[in-house]
Design brief:
2 domains, Sodium/glucose cotransporter, 21 helices, 71% helix
Length: 576
């Protein structure tokens, strides 16, 4: 149960911070174009600068889930998770120089318009439906995470917290456009860092030094970094974190609508790349500092685990409980922490609702309207309907958030959702951008197989419990001795089906590989069966190296064709 220590000054700080966030949103709602066009509401008139976009790229998917989930991860499983930052470096280059140029040439509000141009309408519709499913599930966890914090800090039930946070976020997202989302992301990102650093600074003051925090973590077996085990059933190793984490990162920063939409708020490809690279140190700093915050929390509770002691209900409440327990006596500090969690979720939710409204309008409503009416949907009505869609999705996410508690820890749940849907979608885009063979029938077959396999791996069961490191209650005031070891130590993991034992980070990898393999081979098969000729493909639909080759081939083909025509004309003129 939460301790309920949340004073008047904490409420003042929380309300003040939320008012500032709302004021930023209202400012952009009442100035400039006043969000009267879809171009401004969804793409900020393509006139944003690099810095706010870089912060927003981080804040879109690294919010309250990161603060609560990563700290809990390092508390229970050790600091091995920080290796995922190496994958961020490697895969940022791939996203910046291979995938991003394709979307910039397209200049479409919906990233899935690419799939229609490359394959056909069915591929676009299938992918946008998958994205909508992915984001609704993710945003429900975004809502659920701050509810855990409010429950631990204020004593408010998580159901009440979900409703209050969700409705405020939905209201803000509906009235604010992309400009407001991007600028508030900067302010809210700073609050996220303030929340994390407050935990670290407090722990250092209590323990006397960083070295003492590390010594306690080392004694508890939480500083292991060199797990190079290639076994895919190992939950976290260099292989799972770099390969699995990299595929998840690329599915988000390479082809995800939410991030692609942010890139397109910048006028030039060069500056969009700069924003993506600037996002990297911001993202890594938050990841590394939150990881150390997990060790900082462990240094206080290594011999009196709050969950075992029944002070909190679940692991993801560790960080807010630490704030109350260690800093609750300082007026306003708990309020700043909650404001950081709240604002982080606000930024992620508003970003997601904005992107989902864009996908629904561009991929569903406009095509249907044009096919029925024979003309484009009116601009003014389009803007109004887009805002209504944001409102609808917000209410839907609030409803689904009540089910998020059954998905496990917030970090693993969010990464699982990203992998399950993101891996196959990444495969669908990659097939189209990197090869010329795949067609719509084959690509959709690959997507179906990849998605089915990833879903089976993620939600099939029974699964072995995750191998947590030991915690203890031997130092609690009640004197109860309940030292425990990892729960999996009493189970034989070989009793579980192998696919259910594979690391959750590989869900996306398996989905990606199966989509690529099945999509490519089935495309060849369908071409053979239906005797389809290769189409004259637009080079702009492919990654830059392949696009250059196609352009050279098209130029040489046209020259050859011209020479043949001239020769034929010459022969005809000579009476041959």
């Amino acid at each position: 149960m939460g301790t309920g220590i949340f004073g008047a000054w904490d409420y003042v700080v929380l309300i003040l911070v939320l008012m500032i966030s709302s004021a930023i949103g209202l400012y952009y709602r009442l100035t400039g174009g006043k969000q009267k066009t879809v171009q401004e509401y969804l793409l900020a008139d393509r006139d944003m600068s690099i810095t706010p976009v870089a912060f927003s790229l981080m804040a879109s998917f690294m919010s309250a889930i990161t603060l609560l989930g990563v700290s809990s991860e390092n508390y229970h499983f050790g600091i091995q998770f920080v290796i995922i930052n190496l994958s961020y470096i490697m895969f940022t280059a791939i996203a910046a120089y291979l995938y991003l140029p394709v979307f910039f040439k397209l200049q479409a509000t919906s990233a899935y318009e690419y799939l229609e141009r490359r394959y056909g309408k069915a591929a676009r519709l299938a992918a946008s439906c998958c994205y909508s499913l992915q984001m609704i599930l993710y945003m429900s966890i975004v809502l659920y995470a701050p509810a855990l914090t409010l429950e631990a800090l204020t004593g408010i039930t998580r159901h009440t917290a979900i409703l209050s946070v969700g409705l405020v976020c939905t209201f803000y997202s509906t009235i604010g456009g992309m400009k407001a989302v991007l600028m508030t992301d900067v302010f809210q990102s700073l609050l996220m860092f303030a929340a994390v650093f407050s935990v670290i600074i407090c722990a250092v003051i209590q323990k006397g030094s960083f070295a003492e925090i590390w010594r306690i973590a080392e004694k508890g077996g939480r500083t292991t970094l060199l797990n190079f085990d290639p076994d895919p059933t190992v939950r976290h190793s260099w292989f799972t974190l770099i390969i699995g984490g990299g595929v998840t990162f690329l599915s988000l920063y390479g082809v995800n609508q939410t991030q692609v939409q942010r890139y397109l708020t910048i006028r030039s490809l060069k500056n969009a790349r700069k924003a993506l690279w600037l996002n990297l140190p911001i993202l890594s700093l938050l990841s590394l500092s939150t990881s150390f915050a997990g060790l900082s929390i462990y240094s206080k509770y290594y011999n009196c685990d709050p969950v075992l002691a029944n002070n909190i209900r679940q692991d993801d409440q560790l960080m807010p409980y630490f704030v109350v327990d260690s800093m609750g006596h300082i007026p306003g500090l708990s309020g700043i922490f909650v404001a950081g969690i709240f604002s982080a979720s606000l930024s992620s939710l508003s970003a997601g609702l904005n992107s989902m409204a864009a996908v629904t309008m561009e991929d569903y409503w406009k095509p249907v309207y044009k096919s029925v009416k024979g003309r484009d949907f009116p601009e003014k009505a389009c803007t109004f309907l887009t805002k209504c869609l944001a409102l609808f999705y917000g209410i839907s996410c609030v409803a689904i958030a009540f089910l998020a508690q059954y998905l496990g820890g917030v970090l693993q749940a969010s990464l699982t959702i990203f992998g399950v849907v993101g891996g196959p979608l990444l495969g669908l885009f990659t097939l189209g951008m990197f090869t010329t063979i795949p067609n719509q029938r084959g690509a959709l077959t690959g997507l179906f197989v990849g998605l089915s396999l990833a879903l089976w791996m993620a939600f099939g069961g029974p699964k072995p419990p995750p191998p947590k490191l030991p915690v203890s209650t031997s130092g609690c005031e009640d004197g109860v001795l309940r030292n425990i070891t990892t729960s999996t130590s009493i189970h034989n993991n070989n009793d579980y089906f192998w696919l259910y034992r594979v690391s959750y980070l590989y869900n996306g990898v398996f989905g990606l590989i199966s989509t690529l393999f099945v999509g490519y081979t089935s495309s060849l098969l369908f071409k053979y069966i239906f005797k389809e000729d290769s189409e004259d493909l637009d080079p702009n639909l492919f990654v830059p190296p392949l696009a250059k080759r196609l352009k050279r081939w098209r130029r040489s083909y046209k020259i050859a064709t011209l020479e043949e025509q001239m020769e034929l004309h010459s022969n005809t003129g000579n009476g041959k």
